[in-house]
Write a structure and sequence with these properties.
Blueprint lengths: L1 E3 L5 E8 L1 H14 L3 H14 L13 E8 L2 H11 L4 H15 L11 E5 L8 H14 L4 E5 L5 H5 L12 H6 L11 E2 L9 E4 L8 H5 L8 H10 L4 E5 L6 H9 L12 E6 L3 H21 L5 E9 L5 H12 L5 E6 L2 H8 L4 H4 L4 H12 L2
Helix pairs in contact: 1-4, 2-3, 2-4, 3-4, 5-15
InterPro entries: AAA_dom (IPR025669), Arc_rbn_hlx_hlx (IPR013321), DNA_Partitioning_ATPase (IPR050678), P-loop_NTPase (IPR027417), Ribbon_hlx_hlx (IPR010985)
Protein name: ParA family protein
Pfam family, one: AAA_31
Length: 378
Amino acid sequence: MTDDQSGSDREKVVSKLPQDLRQRLKVRAAELGIDIQDAVTDGVTRWLEHDAPLQTVDTAGAENWATWLPIGLYGRLKDKATQRSLPYVQGVAQAVTLWLDLHSAATVPSGDPQRKIVVNQKGGVGKTAVSAGIAQALAEAGKRVLVVDYDPQGHLTKQLGIPPLTVGGDSLVKHMIGEATGKIVDLLVPVEGERFDGRLLVLPSCQDAFLLDVRLGPIRASERALERALKPLEEGVDVVIIDGPPSLGLGVDAALYYGRRRSGERHGVSGVLIPVEAEDSSADAFEMLTNQIAALDEDFGAQVDYLGIVVNKYDARRGYVATSSLELWQSLGEPRVVGVIPDLREQREAVRVKRPLLDYAPSCKQAIILRDIAKEIS
């Protein structure tokens, strides 16, 4: 449906678009300083000129959406969609997706890596699997990635077959509290695998992190402690991923502060990624985390962006609790669900043999979804 805009060469177009595409379009256009109507105009124009078949976009649940296009452009899209045996809604969705693919998210300034904080104080939701998975996907795609095992339990370190750091020696905690004797770069361990080609590094965990909150208490500006410690490593990497601990203490404050939007950094480049499960206790933990993020902004002016929610270990066979919880997460709108990872055996097998999932089972469904999440939040 269209309405003429009086005194203008544009007409109002009312169509339908999936919620996730609307959100991505809004964010990307804002990042690039482009009006949404101009972005859609460019996307539709390119779609009309694109001869090769485009991938079908999932438009299930698409909702009414409106914008302004040059008069006649939407009519051309409808005609072309008919020629291609596509619904009009699919044509619009493909045009918007094409524009997004051609206008990738702006990168942060040189020397300032993207910072992804994977956090949820509830244990067992899969923070480590998500942290490791997106780190592997980004390294596989050519990024230089540092993943920090910030959990004193050291699951990420152990699952990749890396020895934890020895208590009493140098560690991330020692660097955070100013008691280190060596260089933090000397603690890094590369993850083996042709897919990563030396681009994936791990800062291993140490059990002294169990006392991190206590040790940070007397430290001046403790919220900056993680940033100070990791600063020497930032120049050599494109992305830093923090695998957070199951807590809400000072250490998590420092991680959230590290992931804040820095001066000159665009929206949605750095921030928090929140793994949850499709059950009620995850919702309670999520509310506590969002309260902590709001308090950090109020206390320190730290603007922490939400990169999204990952619903992990999902199994619809668990019945109404699982399916209704997933619907609840998807209805939030912001932060949006950027991935739903099924509960499959490959992840457990990779952990058992201490290999990266994308190296052990690169074509499994979980690996494919983790790659999609990595693209979504980059």
